[in-house]
Amino acid sequence: MRTLRILFIALLVFTSGLAFAQTDDATTTPAQQIDDLRGQLDQVEKSMKDEQITDGKIDDLRGKATDIVSNAQKVSSALQSSRDAAKARLDQMGPAPANGTKEAPELAASRKDATKAFNAVDAQIKQADGIALEAQQTSGQLADLRRIRFQQTISQRTNSPVSRAFWSDPADAFPRDLANLRDFGNQARTDLAASWTQGNRVALIVCVFFGLLLMTGVRFYIEHRVRHLTANRMPPGRLRRSALILGIALTSTLTTGLGTQLLYLGINWNDTLSHDTDEIAKHIVGLVFFGAFVAGLGRALISAKKPSWRLPALSDETALQLRRFPMLFSLAIVLFRFLDLLNRTIGTSLAATVMTSSVQAVALTVLAALALIRLSRTHKTEADADSDDAGQATAARPIWASLLIAAAWIAIIASWVGLLLGYVSFAAFMAGRVVWITIVIAATYLAMRLVDDLFETLLSEKGPMSARAQAVFGTHPKILDQAGVLLSGVVRLGLFLLGLSAAAAGAGGSVPDLLELGGKLQSLKIYNVELKPDQILTAIGLFFVGLMAVRVAKNWLSDQYLPRTSLDPGMRSSLTTLLGYVGVVIVVAIALLAMGLSVQNVAWVASALSVGIGFGLQAIVQNFISGLILLAERPVKVGDWVVLDDAEGDIRRINVRATEIQVGDRSTIIVPNSSFITKPVRNMTMANPQGRVQIKLPMPLDSDPVHVRDHMLEAMTAHSAVQDTPAPSVTLDSIDRTAMMFVATCYVGSPRDVGGVKSDLLFDIIARLRGADIPLLRPQDLVLRSGGNTPEMPGPTGAAAPKASTDDPSS
Description:
The chain has a five-stranded antiparallel β-sheet with strand order 6-5-4-3-7. A three-stranded antiparallel β-sheet has the order 8-10-9. Strands 1-2 form a two-stranded antiparallel ribbon. It has helices at 2-27, 30-47, 55-93, 105-155, 164-197, 201-232, 239-267, 275-302, 316-322, 325-346, 350-388, 399-421, 424-459, 466-473, 477-505, 511-518, 533-561, 569-594, 599-615, 618-633, 673-678, 705-718, 754-771, and strands at 524-526, 529-531, 641-644, 647-654, 658-663, 668-672, 682-683, 691-699, 729-735, 740-748. It contains 23 helices and ten strands. Mean pLDDT is 76; it is low at 1-26, 390-394 and 507-522. Helix 11 (350-388) packs antiparallel against helix 12. It is an alpha+beta fold.
């Protein structure tokens, strides 16, 4: 109830704020809003012409231009109803009379007012649309300016670290840079002294005390409370771990950042800091916030001291090897960003800036390389240890993780090569990109796991809050389970796209900026088709990213969503396979279009392939089409027991070209898909999944048939695998001169169980008959007679018959 009250109060405050905001908007007329938007746009256009504009300022101006576009469109949409009303009023009055025709003065005045009102509203709408269009063009110009500056920075070449000039230039500029640094240090020292003497002493002491207390004692207390709440107050499940990781990361970020903010407030209590010192102090607060987030997120995800709370699949040895790297990366980020800000503030020489960028590239790439080496080393050690242990096997690394590790190594090597060639800006950019993408991946991973665990806890059929959710929504548990999986998938897709956007644009440039660098290279023209390097790289990237997306979608569909439906395993496998086929076709088409091939060119390629298919690939295409027919019509599906020629067993997989059948000896037979279309196939489990057990038992003529039937029925009824429906039965099939033939029939759950159940029943029936002293059928004695006084020769079962080596001596 307390939580509900807090949420209710927050909702009231939020709605009140919206109401006040709407009241403020309502008091502003459309004309005033248009004038305000025009002034904002003029200010943006004026600021973008500044020759000293920075990259951050360009990004801020782009954000303002985007806001102007949105606000102008809102004003235009709000005025549409007024213009429609004025237009309807004019239409109701009709057109003005022709010349020479008099009209009532009241009607003429009304038409004039209506026309004036319509023209005024129409003019305002056109002004708003014009401002929106101009703001869009300004945003595009700012994006072009940002891209040009980025390309110039990346492609700029300086002296290589192996050259003498690289070291001599900073040495020559060192006296001037040192003087600038000394002047800034004196100014900062003066500002700090003023903060202590000019009536700020009490405020500074209080802020420093509470800031340090917040960063130490309060932080540890809140982390302890977070662990206690997640362990004792939250429902059991995976949500505890993800919520704890998020709580620790946020606690580390907020306590450290807010503590630094308190220190800044204490120092600048009466605005005693100068402009440069104040700007650097503000940036330091922001850097500490970000560095605390990086350190807290890494420490929480690795959880070296709390293996049971560790979210990613890391071993204890790997976690111990990586436990110091989050703090090292955090310190490196804060330090180098501070040095970059300091260089811009005091105006250091270009040589010193290049030196700082080189050290930054080397430090970040070395840290990243050491982390990757330790990660791969521990993974290899675990694999070797598990290979020596016959009972265990190490978990395979996901393909996306392997691709990311390979991409990180490529970026690190590219940074080192660029640094040696003199492309210091490129080297620093690649080093920063590796670190930034790592941070984005960690944050996105935590957000995805948190969303997945949250929906699983709230809506999952097996979740701890499933009963409460069913009572609230009043729906079937399966529906809630499927809805939870779908909602989780949609939110995770949005988080992935958000993380992808942040990874592409958060490190100083975007993917189009990098691809546009390749557009300067010479293009290749083949048969009127111009192939550009940037288009080829884009197509290759889209192809591999698309294949990875298709694989992720298939895994999500087969592992998470379809198991929560009522579909049988065969249908689930068919849907997953069809999704893979369709996804691959779409990915290939997108890659071809991105390469510059039009639909007509693709059609020509398909026509050329069809000729080859008609001659050399006929069998492959036949099996491929047959596989599609099997997946669509489903005469056989995964899990069916089929008989095809000499192959009899379970269908394990339906591939593009062939189907895998596992036979009784556990071997696998690969059967072409066309065989299932062109040959007779016996599906043992298609219409009726039950298996029939039939036992034919001959008995002597002097046996009591009723007793024999009762014992056979008791044996079948007592077996746990025999089903009650249809009921077991025993029939007397035939009687001849030597024996009566009994036929026992019963049904089991699967044809695969027939052999084992039949063997069990035979053992049991024979034991029951012998226990009841009912003799089984024995071979008849054969006695040969001859004329005269020749004695009788006993048959093989006679008492005087000679004993074989295999006979029991006691008989």
